[in-house]
């Protein structure tokens, strides 16, 4: 960026929207330069808009990672201005700890065992169970549940509210199916004579439906697509 001699470089851009103000903060300058410009810009904006009601402020910081102290410093500057309240701060980067936590919640956990009556197997992310779930047994996952065996007990996928989660089993004869907060008692059907693997999912009517596993190719294409394509 070419800066005219004597002209101060701008690190903060303020845009008005129907929902309030959006602040775009430069992610290449030093944090001190950013804070100074933020203070100046907001003070100028206050003078021009002295008689306005409470205005939500959304902050976008791009590829800059903020420490807790820096995050609070930005929030304090905004809160100290009349009529302004912080609506949120968005960053395009996350910490290593946050990345590991995200990975843990989305990875497939593979378990080889039988879940007997009275036992509960619960995992974060997706569950791949190689074994049976006996009547009275329960499997729970934050994501999807895939059972290479018979499901004759309880399966609860999308435990933390993921409505797009699915349950699949080689033999689908559960006593109860749950996806997110939707529950379905034992399905009133018998599995086909061919013993095809089946899957359960939430349809457009917010109802749990059991169908052939092959339907997942159309219903949840991201489940069956390799990253990066082929």
Using brief descriptors, characterize the structure shown:
6-stranded mixed β-sheet, about 230 residues, about 20% helix, 4 helices, disordered N terminus, alpha/beta, elongated, disordered C terminus
Summarize the model shown.
The chain is of the alpha/beta class. It is built from 4 helices and 15 strands.
Q: Give the termini distance in whole angstroms.
A: 40 Å
Radius of gyration: 26 Å
Order of helices and strands: EEHEHEHEEEEEEEEEEEH
Number of beta strands: 15
Helix fraction, binned, reads 10-25%
Q: In percent, how much strand structure appears in the residues?
A: 25-35%
- Strand line-up across the major sheet: 5-7-9-11-14-15
Largest sheet: 6 strands, mixed
* Mean pLDDT over all positions: 84
Based on CA inertia axes, which overall geometry fits?
Answer: elongated
Decide which structural class fits the backbone.
Answer: alpha/beta
Uncertain stretches of 5 or more adjacent residues: 1-5, 225-230
| Total count of helical runs of at least 4 residues | 4
What does this structure look like?
- The protein is an alpha/beta fold and 230 residues long.
- It is 20% helix and 34% strand.
- It is built from 4 helices and 15 strands.
- Strands 5-7-9-11-14-15 form a 6-stranded mixed β-sheet, with no helix packed on it. It has a 5-stranded mixed β-sheet with strand order 6-8-10-12-13, with no helix packed on it. Strands 1-2-3-4 form a 4-stranded mixed β-sheet.
- Helix 1 (31-48) runs parallel beside helix 2 (68-79).
- The radius of gyration is 26 Å and the shape is elongated.
- The two termini are 40 Å apart.
